[in-house]
Design goal:
With 281 residues, the protein is α/β, with parallel strands linked by helices. The protein contains nine helices and nine strands. Strands 7-6-5-4-3-2-1-8-9 form a nine-stranded mixed β-sheet, with helices on both faces. The protein is globular and about 55 Å long. The protein starts with a strand and ends with a helix.
Amino acid sequence: MIAELHCHSIYSTGTKIFVEGLNKPDEIVRHAKIIGLNCLALTDHNTMKGITEAKKTARKYGILLIPSEEITTEAGHVLGLGINKAIKPELSLDETIDLIHKQGGIAVAAHPFDFRREGIGELAKKCDAIESFNALNLERTANWCAKTFAKKNKKSTTAGSDAHCLDMLGHGITDITCEHNLGSCLKAIKNGKTSMQKKYVPMNIIVWWTTQRLKYSYYYTINYMNNNYRLPKRFVGTKLIRLVNKSPGNIDYILRGFGYFSLGCIMLYSIFRNVIFKFKV
């Protein structure tokens, strides 16, 4: 089974930038078929609104859809794979995992050592599996930490693209040795019958996605900065966001430069945080 186990649709939204996912569930399923996937977990943030729409298209194209959710717990993000009812956010990690299991699902620690501190870190040992490769962890060290931690604690591993647009889909693929049904698939993941196909999402795709998010969330984001940022951060932020309105065009070279500069800073931060100071196995 060739699976994408971490992706987002238009139903995933954020706080600072409202729009996260750019595509509808049925568009994601159709694209999954085009790129050769036969299993897909739609993991929107704290909602399962897109599952019904995705199911209809998945049946049409013969894709095994794993009804799922990326749940924000008190400790960080956890993927609930194979659940049938959304689990509310901000519960304790233990309570969230228990609710996932009660629905017959499995808990996967999403990007546990993410530099943004959105993962659950070493608490990942409580989950059924660990996402040891996330295609958006471009700084690499977060994935290295997850892989090392999973091996040390003898946990099953998965890969995920964490896709928020069609072009991101299929960068982190999990090959699952199982039959073409939900029960067999979940059992195989839990028992470690997985291998991975891994490649990072290119910077040009990430810059394009970020630009589109900011365009769609333009006034929402400006309003957020005006209400939550102080000078000079508010002044700089509201000026910089205007650059997205000049894309596509020559401004894209500057935006891409910002992207690579930010990645360099993130790499340094992640190395110091995860490798030198805090990471323990």
